[in-house]
Write a structure and sequence with these properties.
single chain; globular; 3-stranded antiparallel sheet; 161 residues; alpha+beta
Length: 161
């Protein structure tokens, strides 16, 4: 993706009167990891990209930082918790637009083979969160998460980082 394509897509959505909830950016970092940013301040983020990234979406201050993909989420792209759970079951990664941490998301981990370390006990499916500091942890929804209506899809099945 080129900067011109990103800004064309953004302008078309704005011209059509679409209300944008957030921009989702996949950014290659100097460590080789991919960071996922979900930012609800779309216009401000686009202004930042305009002044900070070149035509190939490479960061002006570090050639090892570049945007690999970008998506815009519209108001109607928010989901309730039940829908988010359905997406998790289908292999999507989801996040709350209201989360403050960069790159946080939830995914479903499938049933695994028994581990010798677990005395052969069966591993059941569970939900896992990627934290803002790039760690993975089993996740349990809070009451606020369950009642929230701001769940967004951050990655479709098969788009592994």
């Amino acid at each position: 993706m080129k900067k011109a394509e990103l800004f064309k897509q953004y302008q078309e959505l704005v011209d059509q009167g679409n209300e944008l909830d957030c921009i989702i950016l996949y950014i290659h970092m100097p460590t080789g990891e991919q960071e996922t940013i979900v930012n609800p301040n779309v216009a401000e983020k686009m202004a930042y990209i305009e002044k900070t990234y070149n035509d190939d979406l490479i960061h002006a201050g570090c050639a090892d930082i570049y945007i690999t993909e970008a998506f815009f989420s519209e108001k109607n792209d928010y989901y309730g918790f039940g829908e988010a759970v359905g997406f998790l079951k289908d292999g999507y990664k989801v996040a709350r637009a209201g989360w403050n941490g960069k790159g946080m998301w939830i995914r479903k981990i499938e049933r695994g083979e028994p581990s010798p370390c677990d005395n052969g006990m069966e591993n059941l499916p569970y939900l896992e969160m990627k934290t803002a500091d790039n760690k993975l942890v089993p996740w349990l929804a809070s009451q606020t998460d369950i009642l929230a209506e701001d769940w967004v899809i951050v990655e479709e099945p098969g788009e592994e980082e």
